[in-house]
Amino acid sequence: MIRPKIHVVAGPTASGKTAHSLELAKALNTEIISFDSRQFYREMHIGTARPLPNELEEIPHHFLGTESLLAPLDAVSFAQKARPVLNSILDMKGSVVLVGGSGFYLNALLFDLDEMPPTPTAIRTQVSQLSLPELQAQVAAVDPIYFKETDIQNPARLRRALEVWLTSKKPWSAFRKSGLDKKNWEWNAELQLTILNPDRKELHQCIAKRTRQMIERGLKAEALSLIEYRTLPVMNTVGYQEWYAQSEESDREIEAQINAHTRQYARRQTTWFSKFKNQIEGLTIG
Question: What is residue 9's three-state secondary structure?
Fold first, then answer.
């Protein structure tokens, strides 16, 4: 009996994941689930490089522009919503394509469903007002284990860890599973993993080209239309925050900042997916 297959297309931003996933889904006659944690939000279109309307018409997509940034979707909530969809597509089509660059959300969907306590609005508001140094200091104090292993320059991760502590008085590290484990593989399906990893020069060229296209499509106007939400954690996103600084930079200078920040983000993604690939290959799932 042929087992269903879960095809994962992952990699750094601007590496060509959208085009590759569309070709794969067409060939398999199946549907696509996005695990890109910014493309979830309907208000954030241009700056998140969400697929264009004609691309969405070709293949059914899930979790693109379905959420409001006023009701952010954390990794566990995403997994809880996406798992029934994934199972339904596998039952109907025999395969599914997962695509995105948010590795933590992919991990939650496939392996990690530890229950996190819901965060009260008051705590989320309180934490959102903290600066990066304040977040670093507080997370280091309440959850030193997580602080040593996470990207401490990533405010979103630090905010979530602090929210969990303030809500439950337990550290984030106490809720997480200890890495990937075959016993956590609950899918009656094979896993096919494709990590796109262009060479650095090519990726940097693709990043610059895409940033220019975004600006030509109206990125500045989109970002400024959301300025009232700029303090929300979800808005701490490359392509948006650069327009909110009170400074005299020209649009060209801001474009250069977006390119630089995107390159930095791509490096972090590449590192994460490299580790993930090694773990998956060690499990030999399928």
Answer: strand
